[in-house]
Amino acid sequence: MSVRRCCDCSAASGGGLKAGPSGGAAALHAFTLRVGRPVGAMLAQTATSVADALERHGGTTIFEAKLDGARVQIHRAGDQVTVYTRSLDDVTARLPEVVEVALALPVDTLVADGEAIALRPDNRPHVDCEPHDATRRCGVGRFTFA
């Protein structure tokens, strides 16, 4: 489990794979999540039915609506915010609205994983509009993060 946790905490750098051979189990155990180092996406699981989901999770699970947007990971340390895609590309400059949302949160340090969703003027999700395309193609200038 230690190698998997390390890889999840260092998807871009492969740090978990480097820590084990050089420092052994102690290095793997000490490896932690760090702001500014993107991590593997936390992907939801699908099920064929509610009963199927409950059975797979021992009778307890969480359900949420599927909102389509752009999967992003937000890292914040003080006033420095970086936004990564699911493929770990830095898209901070392309999503200034997401940076604004992150800076408005009452925290100094943050690593968040979720969907950036373009909103219509009535604050409802704009279907068929990816956030990176929203201001140009869809006339949307506001985003939310779910």
TrEMBL record:
<keyword id="KW-0132">Cell division</keyword>
<keyword id="KW-0436">Ligase</keyword>
<dbReference type="InterPro" id="IPR016059">
    <property type="entry name" value="DNA_ligase_ATP-dep_CS"/>
</dbReference>
<dbReference type="InterPro" id="IPR012310">
    <property type="entry name" value="DNA_ligase_ATP-dep_cent"/>
</dbReference>
<keyword id="KW-0479">Metal-binding</keyword>
<dbReference type="GO" id="GO:0051301">
    <property type="term" value="P:cell division"/>
</dbReference>
<keyword id="KW-0227">DNA damage</keyword>
<keyword id="KW-0460">Magnesium</keyword>
<dbReference type="GO" id="GO:0006281">
    <property type="term" value="P:DNA repair"/>
</dbReference>
<feature type="domain" description="ATP-dependent DNA ligase family profile">
    <location>
        <begin position="42"/>
        <end position="127"/>
    </location>
</feature>
<dbReference type="GO" id="GO:0006310">
    <property type="term" value="P:DNA recombination"/>
</dbReference>
<dbReference type="GO" id="GO:0005524">
    <property type="term" value="F:ATP binding"/>
</dbReference>
<dbReference type="InterPro" id="IPR050191">
    <property type="entry name" value="ATP-dep_DNA_ligase"/>
</dbReference>
<dbReference type="GO" id="GO:0046872">
    <property type="term" value="F:metal ion binding"/>
</dbReference>
<keyword id="KW-0234">DNA repair</keyword>
<keyword id="KW-0131">Cell cycle</keyword>
<keyword id="KW-0233">DNA recombination</keyword>
<dbReference type="Pfam" id="PF01068">
    <property type="entry name" value="DNA_ligase_A_M"/>
</dbReference>
<dbReference type="GO" id="GO:0003910">
    <property type="term" value="F:DNA ligase (ATP) activity"/>
</dbReference>
<protein>
    <recommendedName>
        <fullName>ATP-dependent DNA ligase family profile domain-containing protein</fullName>
    </recommendedName>
</protein>
